[in-house]
Amino acid sequence: WDRYFEILNGPIFSNLIKMFWMKSTVYDEYEARLEEERAIEKNPELQGIYRKEMGLEEFKEVE
């Protein structure tokens, strides 16, 4: 069994982790507001409309 665990701890295991590693980001209300402000700075006509109408992804509250 010792040899089996040596194989798991080798470079094959690290490559598997890199392939299947979940890539996620934290996106809170502050970041959502900044994204809206940047979009409005680029195009002032976007002022007062919903995120989805601006072409931005809809923001869901942080739990």
Summarize the structure in words:
- By secondary structure, the chain is mainly alpha-helical.
- The protein has a domain at 22-63.
- It is built from four helices and no strands.
- The model has no long low-confidence stretch (mean pLDDT 81).
List keywords for this structure.
mainly alpha
**Which consecutive residue ranges, at least 5 long each, have pLDDT under 50?**
none
Shape: rod-shaped
Radius of gyration: 22 Å
Oligomerization state = single chain
DSSP strand (E) fraction? under 5%
For the biggest sheet, the summary is: none
What's the mean pLDDT score?
A: 81
> Gap between N and C termini, in Å?
44 Å
The secondary structure category is mainly alpha
Number of strands: 0
Give the ordered list of helices and strands. Answer: HHHH
Helix content bin: 55-70%
- Distinct helical segment count: 4
Give the topology, please.
Elements: H1 2-8, H2 11-20, H3 29-42, H4 51-54
Short description:
The protein has a domain at 22-63. Helix content is 56%, strand content 0%. The chain contains four helices and no strands.
